[in-house]
Write a structure and sequence with these properties.
heterodimer; A: about 325 residues; mainly alpha; 12 helices; 2 strands; about 75% helix; globular; B: about 300 residues; two-stranded antiparallel ribbon
């Protein structure tokens, strides 16, 4: 197992390096930030000074090596727009995104699993059919569209909930979080639901498939024959056996929640890192774009690795091994 | 519509098929199987209508929304049903620049469908070639290709598209490239999966014994037999890529404003929604929704008909 982990870590380093070259090369090619950042009234000398201070006059490979060297020391460049370190800028917004993603994940588990079990236990009932039909909708509707609809209904027409922003926040372990204040919670509901819908659908499908598979197993028949109450069979024997794969997949999906939060944050004006990256792309703020992409890729690789390892711990039938090349 | 009961029906239909005298050609049997689901038929015809609208947009639109001479700023934000300065009735209202929403949507559909279909087709070709090669040659080729595919599929599509568009910039060609890169891996994996099964069957062995060339075996013998799952994945992927393109355009990193797809129309209308001017955003949204859902309905049914054992 340790060999496996070491190999995976090496692989991760290679991927991150390749990604950094790709991202840096790509970002390097688009637009010239000097034209946007330097005002037209600036004279030639001032212009030159600014370009040099930002390192924009160097050839590509030197800029990359400079970037790589600094990145290894935790310095991902200074934002052209905010004039702050890009890393700090992103870390500053990260709690908001993580809060949103965790809320969505929680919703997927809390709503998805019971609904999926219901659909699996009574596949022919009307309720199950509507659950499955809505899960198909949940899969096929684009997140941003659902977000707009939710705003339209709950914020514009009914006026029950705010349409955007984060509301009042309170500090928890040094991070600002919304869910501890009533105002923040109210602001959190709509974006979290929006982000969660896709994952709720996924959880419903996974749980339903799992339930239908498990319910025909011998140990369930045996538990029934033993005279156990239905409630106990479902809560203990069925649930325990379907939970592992469902939780694993949802865990893997956590990364995709962070990626999709880009959409939700833009729709709901949620001040997280997803909104920051979209703004930065449009402003050609290279350091922030590069830093965001690098951080997200690293997060993904770590999440994938952790879930893989956790999976083998939770389910001893799965043995970690590398495919022979 | 539970999947389980339909599986049974399809299984029975397949089992009884040789005894049916009337519908003898496989294609007719396929048609009658497909038509058993009314929802899928409705989905199919809806999609057909949408395709026609998209193709005929320049001829059936009431106005040309991109002809600056005919767009009047005085017409901006008209409510649905109001008359424009030219006398044309704007059935679904006008947007912030005074463009008729019906026409804008027709043209938007054209771009959305075009981008979705073109990128899907190219990705399909690449994915099929790579997947077939991977399955047919096996060994090191297979390992390397599948490593790349697995690696790519471990990242969500939107993140990859974001990386590409952040680096490439805006533009129709750029978004098509991004959508191709995002999609090819799905096709490659699907094709490889079913080709691996087919490769070990006798007819491939027979073809090899006959001394046929690799090309001929792969494209004339292997490919036709891996088509069914490919068609299913292809249908669903087109819907996905239309949705993804709309999402990216909504975020403002997809298509340029000169080529407004449905996503961009929705995005433009979003800013007016808070002030109650719902139609600028909602109607393109409905068009997008109908398109995606109708494709998915067809895809769902195709999966059941073509491959009864392929469970979700």
């Amino acid at each position: 197992m340790s060999v496996y982990i070491i190999r995976r870590l090496l692989q991760a380093v290679v991927v991150i390096l390749a990604m950094s070259i790709l991202v840096f090369a790509g970002v390097f090619m688009i637009g010239n930030p000097a034209e946007i950042l330097i005002s037209d009234d600036a004279d030639q000398a001032e212009r030159q000074r600014l370009i040099e201070s930002l390192g924009l006059h160097l050839p590509f490979y030197l800029q990359y090596l400079r970037f790589l060297g600094r990145a290894l020391q935790g310095d991902l460049g200074v934002s052209f727009v905010f004039n702050e370190p890009a890393l700090l800028l992103i870390l500053d917004r990260m709690p908001a995104t993580l809060e949103l993603a965790f809320s969505a994940l929680l919703m997927a588990i809390v709503f998805g699993i019971p609904l999926g079990m219901w659909a699996g236990l009574k596949p022919d009932s009307l309720a199950s059919k509507s659950i499955m039909a809505s899960s198909i909708l949940g899969f096929s509707l684009p997140t941003f569209w659902v977000g707009i609809m939710i705003i339209m209904i709950f914020a514009v027409i009914l006026g029950w909930l705010p349409s955007g922003g984060r509301g009042e926040t309170r500090e928890l372990f040094g991070f600002d979080v919304s869910f501890l204040t009533a105002d923040g919670l109210v602001h959190l509901v709509l974006p979290a639901v929006n982000l969660a819908l896709l994952k709720i659908s996924l959880a419903i499908r996974l749980t339903r498939a799992g339930t239908r598979e498990v319910i025909h197993q011998d140990y369930i028949k045996f538990a029934r024959a033993k005279g156990l109450r239905t409630g106990r069979i479902i809560m203990v024997h069925v649930l325990k056996n379907i939970l592992i794969p469902v939780i694993t997949v949802l865990g893997l999906e956590f990364g995709s929640l962070i990626a999709f939060s880009v959409v939700t944050e833009t729709v709901f004006a949620w001040p997280g890192m997803g909104k920051l990256i979209i703004d930065s792309i449009n402003r050609l703020d290279r350091p922030v774009v590069v830093a965001y992409l690098m951080i997200t890729v690293c997060m993904f690789i770590i999440i994938n690795l952790v879930v893989d390892i956790l999976y083998s711990v939770l389910d001893p039938r799965v043995r970690l091994q590398d495919v022979k090349g | 519509m539970t999947v389980a009961t339909e599986f049974k029906e399809v299984d029975v239909a397949v089992a009884e098929a040789p005894m049916v005298v009337k519908d003898q050609t496989p294609f007719r049997r396929f048609l009658s199987d497909f038509a058993e689901s009314k929802v899928a038929v409705v989905g199919f015809f809806t999609f057909l209508i949408i395709v026609f609208i998209a193709i005929l947009a320049p001829w059936i639109s009431p106005t040309n929304p991109y002809d600056l001479a005919s767009v009047d700023i005085l017409d901006s934000r008209l409510e649905p049903g109001e008359k424009m300065m030219t006398g044309t009735v704007a059935w679904l209202g006008t947007d912030g620049l005074g463009r008729d929403m019906v026409s804008a949507m027709f043209y938007g559909l054209r771009i959305s469908l075009g981008v979705g279909a073109l990128s899907g087709l190219i990705a399909l070709c690449i994915g099929v070639c790579v997947g077939l090669a991977s399955a047919y040659f096996g060994g090191r080729v297979d390992t390397i290709i599948m490593r790349v595919v697995d690696l790519q599929l471990s990242f969500p599509a939107i993140l990859i598209a974001l990386v590409l568009l952040a680096t490439l910039g805006k533009g129709v060609d750029k978004i098509i490239i991004a959508l191709i890169v995002v999609q090819w891996a799905y096709y490659a994996r699907t094709v490889r999966g079913s080709a691996l099964v087919e490769r070990n069957k006798e007819y491939i062995e027979a073809a090899t014994c006959l001394g046929l060339s690799h090309n001929r075996i792969v494209f004339r013998h292997l490919l036709p037999n891996v088509m069914p799952p490919l068609i299913v994945v292809g249908t669903v992927q087109v819907a996905h890529s239309i949705a993804l393109e709309a999402t990216l355009s909504f975020l403002g990193i997809g298509l340029p404003t000169t080529e407004p797809s449905l996503g961009l129309l929705i995005s433009n209308g979003f800013e007016y929604m808070m002030s109650g001017k719902y139609w600028i955003s909602i109607y393109p949204g409905v068009a997008l929704l109908v398109t995606i859902v109708s494709i998915n309905l067809v895809g769902d049914r195709l999966r059941d008909v073509l491959n009864p054992r392929l469970a979700r």
